[in-house]
């Protein structure tokens, strides 16, 4: 109640607002009532005109009106009709008259026969007329219309009208409703004004106009007098108020208030802070040439009203100190990033590029790294040799500096030459005044200066006592030249990079040595043989040299051995071990051992190697070496396979079907004590035998089954030739760096034609030797090898005779016409023959000596039930 009385008193701002609102509402209600009454009267008059015209036209055109006018007594006929029509149509009169205006009808009979009062001219011309006149019954609205006969001739007139008294009565009938609505509106407006004033009273704390004006003047004076900028923004980021200091510090336009902060031309950081409305305490923002400390708080801590108030003070005097602190922090960050980002790989060129990428544009606009050629190859730097531009990074690509891979010899007077000679950094603050630098290349030096590069720091890349190259830092965009502090930073930056580059150089040297060793240990060319058409691929690992190897070994009897192995690990040790294993396989294969027995001997050898190196803690054991050994015989088209911890081979049949034969998986080499079983595969001519190392089918992300399935799909879609197969298999590998070596051999089988194979059983009778010689002579003549008849007869005679004397039945002779002429004698004894030199007094012992002299090579091959002694002769 006290608040209401204060509102009604009119002394406060709320009371005055209430009175003004009430007066305005009252005036609006009165105006609305008057307008409604006038509008009702106007609408009633218009309705009277319309009704009068309609009634007059209806009566004039009613049936019988024309005939009544032609009758002897028109009044008798028309008067009753007119009165009846008048009552039905609710008009005050209907008057029918002749063309002279003499009335035939009238509500008052005493007016019949008298002259009509009104305008008749337009009606006599055939046009209706509506007018407001003073008639015999008062002020009225009347309409006069013509009555026309069928020929269109006006034979009479009809007038209908309503008095204004009746028209006004219709409007007055609506007045109570209008006044009631006005009263209700006035009541609602009064209540609304009272509520608004009460709210205003609460917000203004009951202050009067003079008090509020005085308070505003005080606040405005304080606001603009303080030496601290003040800004008030609403929740949308629109500037509501700013004092003079804020305008000065932010360089705000005159019409800043009422505009969004994004439209005030402020820098992005300031705009983000002001528009966000977040709390800030002494947050320093660079604005133009000033450093401003900004404090910002919400206008309503309770969060009911969005908005913020921001205070700003100038802290430009702290700029120098803050700049030095920021510069120091940036330098520390750069040095930290150098320790993390330089040397991520053991590649010299990439490490040099990481250094140049790090320094641009944080420290310099252009950075070039020049290394000695021998350093790139992993060797010791040669001070007399040329350097090669290994890395170059810049803010622009079109700078006239030497391009990457350009060979350079720096003159002694150049900053780079002085750095290399003295082993210390050199600062050239102004290149346009440095004749020693310009002497390097006068034309290019002029282009560099014209381009805008004006300052240079050169730092030698030192690793202990070695100078690996020189790093040049060039500045163009920043007008200030390099200073001594930046020289010290460049030295520290290059010193950290030099360690990584030297590590990469040492690794490159070891990697090159290991690659050279590995390449020397792998077969450079495949031996000549006819049993298999072979293609191969070897892909070294990206991370280092591995121990994968392969070989193709021709054996006796036109057979060929294929071997694939893998030594776990990388580096020189793995490559050297691989070479030892390959040499051992070469030696063991000369014994013509079955694959299982050969792997057993190889396993024993690896065990001995581990025992010999067990005393050296710096040498890792060879456990983890794997091997697969396969022997293909083109005569029987059979392939015998054994494996020691190695992935199984793949076979592609002539029709394209791919399978992985079930070859027993032995343990890796070096475990010892376990046998190795072999599997025998029958391969039709044209089959492809695929041998590989685990690097082809295994990676860290997928199981070997996934790799084998991927290999199966690649083989199924490959061409028929071994080269096409190798290409398809390697193309199917996932892109990226290889984590392990890959060795791949694809061999397509061939069969020795039956016409080039000759076999004879030999009875245990010395007389059968002659029959064998005769059969051999005939077969050699059939093959066109008559030149070899003598030597072949002698070789087979000696071998068959030895089999009869020292071997056991059955005895069988076989000749193969392949790249060589192969003679083989089989017997069931496992006793090995020995070559010896007979003395002059010995009666025998010269048979194998003669065989060795006549044959290109000879040997013994042991079978599960006996042996085969063979000899090869070169074809003529």
UniProtKB/TrEMBL annotation:
Compartment(s): Cell membrane
Matching InterPro entries: Bact_Sigma-Reg, GAF, GAF-like_dom_sf, HATPase_C_sf, HATPase_dom, PAS, PAS-like_dom_sf, PPM-type-like_dom_sf
Residue ranges occupied by any PAS domain in the UniProt entry: 217-282
Keyword annotations of the record: ATP-binding, Cell membrane, Hydrolase, Kinase, Membrane, Nucleotide-binding, Phosphoprotein, Transferase, Transmembrane, Transmembrane helix, Two-component regulatory system
Residues annotated as domain GAF: 343-511
Domain annotation PPM-type phosphatase: ranges: 529-749
Keyword Kinase: yes
Protein name: SpoIIE family protein phosphatase
């Amino acid at each position: 109640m006290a608040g209401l009385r204060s509102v009604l008193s009119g002394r406060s701002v709320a009371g005055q607002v209430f009175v003004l609102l009430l007066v305005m509402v009252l005036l609006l209600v009165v105006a609305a009532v008057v307008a409604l009454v006038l509008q009702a009267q106007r609408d009633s008059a218009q309705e009277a005109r319309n009704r009068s015209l309609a009634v007059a036209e209806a009566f004039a055109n009613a049936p019988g009106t024309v005939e009544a006018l032609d009758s002897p007594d028109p009044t008798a006929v028309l008067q009753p009709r007119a009165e009846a029509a008048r009552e039905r149509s609710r008009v005050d009169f209907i008057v029918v008259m002749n063309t002279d205006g003499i009335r035939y009808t009238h509500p008052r009979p005493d007016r019949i026969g008298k002259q009509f009062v009104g305008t008749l001219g337009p009606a006599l011309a055939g046009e209706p007329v509506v007018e407001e006149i003073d008639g015999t019954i008062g002020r009225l609205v009347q309409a006069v219309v013509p009555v026309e006969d069928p020929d269109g001739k006006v034979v009479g007139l009809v007038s209908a009208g309503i008095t204004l008294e009746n028209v006004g009565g219709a409007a007055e009938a609506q007045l109570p409703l209008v006044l009631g609505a006005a009263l209700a509106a006035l009541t609602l407006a009064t209540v609304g004004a009272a509520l608004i004033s009460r709210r205003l009273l609460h917000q203004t704390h009951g202050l009067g106009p003079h008090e509020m004006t005085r308070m505003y003047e005080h606040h405005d004076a304080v606001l603009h007098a303080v030496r601290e900028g003040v800004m008030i923004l609403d929740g949308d980021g629109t500037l509501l108020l700013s004092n003079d200091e804020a305008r000065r510090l932010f360089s705000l336009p005159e019409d800043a208030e009422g505009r969004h902060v994004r439209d005030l031309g402020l820098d992005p950081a300031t705009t983000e802070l002001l528009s966000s409305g977040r709390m800030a305490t002494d947050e320093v923002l660079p604005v133009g040439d000033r450093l401003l400390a900004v404090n910002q708080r919400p206008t309503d801590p309770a969060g009911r009203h969005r908005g913020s108030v921001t205070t700003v003070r100038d802290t430009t005097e702290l700029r120098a100190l803050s700049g030095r602190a920021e510069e120091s922090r940036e330098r520390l960050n750069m040095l930290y990033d150098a320790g993390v980002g330089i040397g991520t790989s053991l590649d010299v060129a990439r490490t040099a590029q990481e250094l140049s990428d790090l320094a641009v544009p944080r420290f310099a606009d252009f950075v070039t790294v020049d290394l000695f050629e021998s350093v790139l190859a992993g060797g010791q730097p040669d001070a007399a040799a040329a350097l090669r531009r290994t890395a170059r990074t810049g803010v622009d690509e079109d700078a006239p500096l030497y391009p990457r891979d350009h060979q350079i010899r720096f003159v002694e007077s150049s900053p780079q030459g002085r750095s290399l000679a003295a082993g210390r950094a050199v600062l050239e603050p102004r290149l346009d005044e440095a004749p020693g630098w310009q002497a390097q290349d006068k034309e290019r030096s002029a282009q560099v200066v014209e381009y805008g590069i004006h300052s240079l720091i050169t730092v030698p890349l030192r690793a202990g006592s070695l100078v690996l190259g020189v790093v040049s830092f060039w500045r163009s965009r920043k007008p200030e030249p390099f200073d001594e502090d930046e020289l010290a930073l460049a030295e520290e930056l290059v010193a950290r990079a030099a360690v990584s580059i030297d590590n990469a150089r040492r690794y490159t040297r070891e990697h090159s040595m290991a690659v050279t060793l590995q390449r020397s240990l792998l077969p450079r060319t495949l031996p000549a043989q006819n049993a298999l058409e072979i293609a191969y691929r070897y892909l070294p690992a990206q991370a280092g040299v591995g121990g994968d190897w392969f070989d193709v070994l021709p054996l006796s009897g036109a057979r060929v051995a294929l071997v694939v192995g893998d030594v776990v690990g990388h580096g020189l040790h793995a490559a050297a071990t691989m070479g030892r294993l390959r040499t051992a396989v070469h030696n063991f294969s000369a014994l013509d051992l079955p694959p299982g027995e050969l792997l057993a001997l190889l396993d024993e050898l690896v065990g001995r190697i581990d025992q010999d190196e067990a005393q050296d803690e710096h040498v890792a054991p060879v456990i983890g070496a794997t091997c697969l050994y396969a022997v293909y015989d083109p005569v029987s088209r059979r392939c015998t396979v054994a494996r020691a911890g190695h992935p199984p081979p793949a076979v592609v049949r002539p029709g394209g079907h791919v399978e992985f034969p079930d070859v027993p998986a032995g343990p890796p080499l070096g475990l010892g004590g376990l046998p190795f079983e072999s599997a025998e595969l029958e391969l039709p001519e044209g089959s492809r035998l695929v041998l590989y190392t685990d690097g082809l089918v295994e990676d860290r992300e997928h199981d070997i089954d996934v790799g084998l399935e991927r290999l199966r799909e690649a083989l199924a879609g490959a061409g028929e030739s071994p080269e096409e197969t190798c290409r398809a298999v390697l193309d199917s590998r996932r892109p990226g760096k290889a984590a392990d070596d890959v060795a791949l051999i694809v061999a397509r089988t061939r069969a020795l034609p039956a016409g080039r194979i000759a076999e004879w059983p030999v009875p245990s009778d010395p007389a059968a030797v002659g029959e064998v010689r005769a059969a051999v002579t005939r077969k050699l003549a059939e093959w066109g090898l008559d030149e070899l008849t003598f030597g072949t007869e002698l070789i087979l005679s000696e071998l068959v005779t030895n089999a009869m004397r020292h071997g056991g039945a059955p005895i069988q002779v076989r000749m193969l016409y392949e790249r060589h002429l192969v003679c083989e004698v089989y017997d069931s004894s496992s006793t090995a023959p020995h070559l010896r030199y007979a003395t002059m007094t010995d009666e025998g012992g010269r048979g194998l000596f003669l065989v060795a002299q006549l044959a290109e090579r000879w040997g013994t091959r042991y079978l599960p039930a006996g042996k085969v002694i063979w000899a090869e002769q070169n074809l003529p």
